[in-house]
Amino acid sequence: MVEAVLIDVFSLPANLQNNIQGLLHNTLETIEKCSSIHAPCVYVMCCQRQGSERKGEQGFLLPALRGFQRLKRRLEVVCTLTTAAALYTVKQRLDEKDLSIIKVILPTSRKDLMKVYIDHLFTAVYQFEFEDLQMVSDCENLQVPEPQGEGQTLPSQDVALIRSEIQMYLESLPSLKGDLTILRSSLIPDDIFLHGFTTRTGGISYIPTLSSCNLFSSSKRRDPQVVVKENLRRLANAAGFNPEAFHRVKVDHANAVCVLGKTEPGSYDGIVTNQKGVTLAAPGADCIPVLFADPVRKACGAAHSGWKGTLLGVSMATVNAMVSEYGCNVKDILVVLGPSVGPCCYKLPHESAKEFHRIDPKCVRLFDSASPYIDIRRATRILLERGGILPENIQDDSITDQNQNITFCTSCHPDKFYSHFRDGTNFGTQIGFISIKD
Length: 438
Known about the structure:
Its EC number is 2.4.2.1, 2.4.2.28, 3.5.4.4. Interacts with FASN. Interacts with SDHA. Interacts with ATF6, EIF2AK3 and ERN1. It comes from Atrichornis clamosus. One of its GO terms (biological process) is regulation of defense response. The chain has 438 residues and is of the alpha/beta class. It folds into 2 domains: 4-136 and 154-171, Rossmann fold (3-Layer(aba) Sandwich); 176-436, CNF1/YfiH-like putative cysteine hydrolases, CATH 3.60.140.10. Helices cover 30% and strands 19% of the residues. The chain contains 13 helices and 18 strands. The strands form 4 sheets. A 6-stranded mixed sheet has the order 9-10-13-12-14-17. The chain has a 5-stranded parallel sheet with strand order 3-2-1-4-5. Strands 6-7-18-11-8 form a 5-stranded mixed sheet, with no helix packed on it. β1, α1 and β2 form a beta-alpha-beta unit. The N and C termini lie far apart (56 Å). The relative contact order is 0.10.
């Protein structure tokens, strides 16, 4: 069942107002007639021309909107300067109501163009079907979505213009939830390395569990790649790195490591380099973003260490890659564990907890329960020390001066961090990042 209807009259010229009113009236009449049980939300997208008052621009549509009592409370006119702004505004309304099945009624000439906008501003969470604005006539079309179609047929220059329009619009949006904040470790020398761990503030992601500086897009979440890219651009500006030379691990919850410049694995949870000006990053939303720095050989790395990766030794695998590829001495490597779920909150089934108990019984609390509490940070530290990393070269929540602590529990601090454990499947992601300064 269609949950929302988007009527696009954005490109129809104002001198055809009477025609637009007629088309819109007929379209709304069909929607109301076909929605006797469940009235969908209806959004009418129109153009606010430069210099015109918003009310005046919407005024010519009012005669067509009167009289639709069933739709009255669920009907909204979205009047903006660009299609990108209008569609993004509609997306916000859909997300507020958790709607995902949308019928788009529009002129045939706009269909291919609209599909490009939708491909950029939405993810696979949403389902779209399209209908010709002039051919709204029967009720059946409101029931079952049709496939969106294969590919896009617009010329590449038109697609580039759409991308540019979207980017300019997103860049104009204000930051949410305060200023962009970066946590830095005093262990990593800032004269050689640029590094940090992000928090959730200062971006443009508006969905509560993703707000605001979400730095990962997925087909299963509502934040599209273009929004994540804009958040990354703002982070890069604040931190001082080049977002075009940015490499994030391809998470597999295992222990493979990518050596930058060599053949890239299909997936990997660790990455290392000795190239200057290249930023490496590892995500985290409970899993540990781990940063590695060797100020002697001037090499660095990043790893994503969840409970599976921790047991598989992804952190030492990253250290070993730095040793074998760049001649690093394990005793020179500095390791910092970023914000991650703490032993105060994190539970695993008993069978998985046994593996942590084997590393050290202190990694498990309430071991005899069905779901013991697990300390993946302690397990990571122990495995690193067993591999030769000096205890004083590891920073985590066990440091003496807690004013220097950056390994906060993500689940305990909803104002600062995202947490899969706390927020569920539509969760946001922060990152740890590091690069060698030019």
